[in-house]
Amino acid sequence: MAAPEADPPDPADALRVAALRAQGAIATPPQGVPGPACTFAAAVVNGGWLTVGWLGDSRVYLLGADGGALRMTADDTLAAEAARAGLLPPEAAETGPGAHTITRWLGPGNADPVPRVASVPLTAPGRVVVCTDGLWNYVSAAAAVAARVADLPTRASALAVARHLTSVALRAGGRDNVTVVVMDLPGRA
Q: What is the H or E stretch that residue 121 is in?
């Protein structure tokens, strides 16, 4: 058993270290062979705060028990960057050219594998949804994700919510990989 640390690690630093370690574990492909690439999204709850980190277009949503919803991440795609620069209308960021061309990822060829991070204080019970574009292609807005979760009884388990959201994406077409992870926040009834 390890001795307790005097100062626990900062969640933002822990997310950065996790991504860098994952990047370091990816094998370099042979010359001329494209290497594997993937997005990264993670959430840590620590000391009354939610901290998220991401690379690419996987997302993290914070859903309050009161029905409030917040998207915690911003896509790292050509279209999203163009929209942030005012070159595309914001609504084109998810459907226009470059909407799924990621600009940051884990894998060979990425010059910056350090994830962006964001934190918010947790003031009430809720849930965190971490997902790939296989879900948000069909349910993108934070309020829409919250509405799909509200399809279930309030006491539905995190696993039941993840399965339900996966089914929502598959019934809508499921044309991309669908990964959904749900975490109940402290104080959830």
A: strand 116-121
> Considering the chain, what is the average pLDDT of its residues?
91
Residue 187, pLDDT > 90, answer: no
Prediction pTM value: 0.91
Residue 115's Cβ-side half-sphere holds a number of Cα atoms within 13 Å equal to 34
Q: Which residues pair with 182 in a beta bridge?
A: 129
Torsion sign (Cα): 89, 103, 134, 187: negative
- The two three-digit tokens of residue 186, written as one number: 């402290």
The closest of 63, 59, 74, 65 to 145, measured between CA atoms, is: 63
d(CA 41, CA 131): 8
1 confidence band (pLDDT: 50, 70, 90) = very low
Q: What is the CA radius of gyration of the chain?
A: 17
